[in-house]
Structures are given as C-alpha cells and as structure tokens.
Amino acid sequence: MKIISTVKELQVQLKELRRSSLGFVPTMGALHKGHLSLVRNAISECPLIVVSIYVNPTQFNDREDLKRYPRPLKKDLAMLRKCLRKNDIVFTPDDNEMYPAEDKRIFSFGNIDNLMESLHRPGHFNGVAQIVSRFFEIILPNVAFFGLKDFQQVAVIKELIRQNQYKVKIAVCPVVREPDGLAMSSRNILLEPQVRKNAPVIFKTISEASEMIRKSDIPEIKAFVKKSIEKRAGFSVEYFEIVDDRELIPAGLKKEMEKGKRYYGCIAVRAKKIRLIDNIEFPLV
Ligand code: AMP
Questions:
Q1: Are residues 234 and 149 in the same domain?
Q2: Residue 110 domain-assigned?
Q3: 53 lines ligand 1 (CB under 6 A)
Q4: What local confidence, expressed as pLDDT, does residue 129 receive?
Q5: Ligand 1 binding pocket includes 130 (Cβ within 6 Å)
Q6: Would residue 257 count as lying in a domain?
Q7: What gap in Å lies between CA 257 and CA 259, rounded to an integer?
Q8: Please, what is the Cα angle at 15 between 154 and 129, to 5 degrees?
Q9: Which of 71, 111, 235, 240 is the most buried (most CB within 10 A)?
Q10: pLDDT of 19 above 90
Q11: What is the pLDDT of residues 95-145, one digit of tens each?
C-alpha cells in the first residue's frame, strides 16, 4: 500500500494508477472491523481504492469530543497493511491540506437534516458535507463506501451527491457488531468498563422493539425503549425514531408506515460522557 499525505501527491498517483473503477472509503481512523468490512467490500469491487484517515474538525460540534477522539495512526496503518494491495492508497492529510482556507460553505438538506443527529449535533452534517465533497472533488471516486451504522449520514451523502451531481455511486455496508451486539465504533474504547458492560442493552432493546411492532404501536414501543435503556446507570436516550430510509420521515403511529418503504429504528444514547448511535430495520406489519 502507499501512504500519501498531500493532495498534490495523491492526484499525481491517481493520474497514473486510476483504473476502470476507483473505490473510496472515508474514515476518521481508530479503525475496527466495521471499517475493515468497508475496505474489504471496496477491494472486492474496485481494482484500486483510496482509504482516507482524517479526523475532520468541522463535523464536531463538541470540542471535548474532538479532543478525546482516538488517533492510533500506527495501529491503523498496520491493520490496513494486512488487507490493502500494492497500489491501494491510504490518504492521511492534515488540516492544512483539507482546509487551506476556512470552509464557509453552508449546505441545505431539508428535512433529512432536521431531526435526530441534526438536533443533537447542530452543524454536524454541514461539516460532513464539507469534508466529503472536498474528498469527492479531489479523488473523483467511482464508488464510495459508507456504513449503515451512520444511517442518517447515508441519507445526507446521497442528497449531497444528488444536489452536486457527483458521478459517484454509493455502496452501503451493514453494521458490524461486537459478539455481544454492541455496534462497533471508534468511541467504544472510551467507555468506562461498567458502561461498556451495559452497552449491549442498546442493540438488545432496539432488536426487541423491532419485534414489538407486530403487536404494539409506536408510542408504546418508544416508552419501552426509553425505560429499558435508562434502567442502566448513566444511560439516557437522546432520541429514538422510526423513520423511512429515503426521506427520513418519522412514523408516530404504525398506520403511518407506508407500504413499499423501508423503516429503521434509529437511536442515540448518552452513556455517561460518550454518545452511542445504532439502528435496526423495522418490519412493515
Ligand atoms: P468513522 O471513522 O466513524 O467516520 O466511520 C467511517 C465509516 O465507517 C463510515 O461510513 C461509518 O458508517 C463506517 N462504520 C463505522 N462503524 C461501523 C460499523 N460498526 N459497521 C459498519 N460500518 C461502520
């Protein structure tokens, strides 16, 4: 694999190496098996891929979160070395490379940026759109790989592509979990041992909730989710919404869930200082 940290060098290399289909996997590092599943999918689909490792400051609305975000670059590179091919590129730019001047662009994504993460992390998706659009314009990938773990982000990226007419296809990869069900996340290593021990309650609860929809209506399910998770010390539910995967319109009652659409229960939990998100598909009944 090649490690490149400047835009200029990246573009020189891509000019030479680009083949039929260029794959792109954006990450913020602190890699785990969830990231590696994206990388493996990219490798199986594309003869050349770029994996970026960059902690993008503009998508953090919480300074503390940015400060404590793990950055184990050496370990990340060792993991990637085991799966990348000779010409695949790891792009590790610094802030000056990504933002030579302050990025003042304001994006507007309508309803999909008006609920869930957007309410609890104001400006987050604007920052995501800034960095992803910059990457797309530098790299010009044919396919970009994103995880369904960040459910709302996938909808935002699809809208970003539509608005800007980027010629890139999106491949969405399923959530990879720890054996106890906790969705893998770079932030999991920041959990205190007792909090980590209790964290599987999140997936267990939304899994049960997705079964409950057969017999119960949404207000009852929401109450169950909140009660079940908040039984754990230090856990509080920021939101739990059942939304369709295109327009992200929340269903308040079962009868509002429309045939032909796919619905996901999306949750954010504050587990002491750390925020955890997860989601699961809800069947139409
Ligand atoms: P991040 O480094 O957190 O910005 O994530 C980079 C990419 O990896 C995003 O597209 C995430 O959705 C994806 N990702 C993170 N965690 C997981 C996971 N547990 N399973 C699948 N994809 C994931």
A1: no
A2: yes
A3: no
A4: 99
A5: no
A6: yes
A7: 7
A8: 25
A9: 240
A10: no
A11: 999 999 999 999 999 999 999 999 999 999 999 999 999 999 999 999 999
Residues 39 and 155 in one domain: yes
Count Cβ neighbours within 10 Å for each residue of 218-247 and write b for 16 or more, e otherwise: beebbebbbebbeebeebebbbbbbbbbee
Q: Answer whether 186 contacts ligand 1 (Cβ < 6 A).
A: yes
List pLDDT tens digits, range 214-232. 999 999 999 999 999 999 9
**Residue 181: inside a domain, yes or no?**
no
Nearest residue to 115 via CA among 219, 251, 249:
249
Using the 3D structure, point to which of 115, 150, 173 is the last residue of a domain. Answer: 173
Residue 180 located in a structural domain: no
For residue 160, how far is its CA from the centre of ligand 1 (angstroms)? 18
Q: Closest Cα partner for 263 from 242, 277, 278, 279? A: 242
Give the residue whose CA is nearest to atom 12 of ligand 1.
147
| pLDDT at residue 120, rounded to an integer | 97
**Residues 130, 197 within the same domain:** no
State how many domains the chain has: 2
| Active centre residues (catalytic) | 35
Sort strands 263-271 and 235-244 into parallel, antiparallel or unpaired: antiparallel
Q: How far is the CA of 278 from the centre of ligand 1 (A)?
A: 11
- Label residue 63 by pLDDT band (50, 70, 90): very high
User: Per-residue pLDDT averaged across 248-275, rounded?
Assistant: 98
Q: Could you tell me the distance, in angstroms and rounded to a whole number, from the CA of residue 146 to the centre of ligand 1?
A: 7
Is the CB of residue 59 below 6 angstroms from any atom belonging to ligand 1? no
- Domain identity same for 154 and 36: yes
The proportion of the chain whose per-residue pLDDT surpasses 90, expressed as a percent, equals 99
Same domain for 231 and 129?
Answer: no
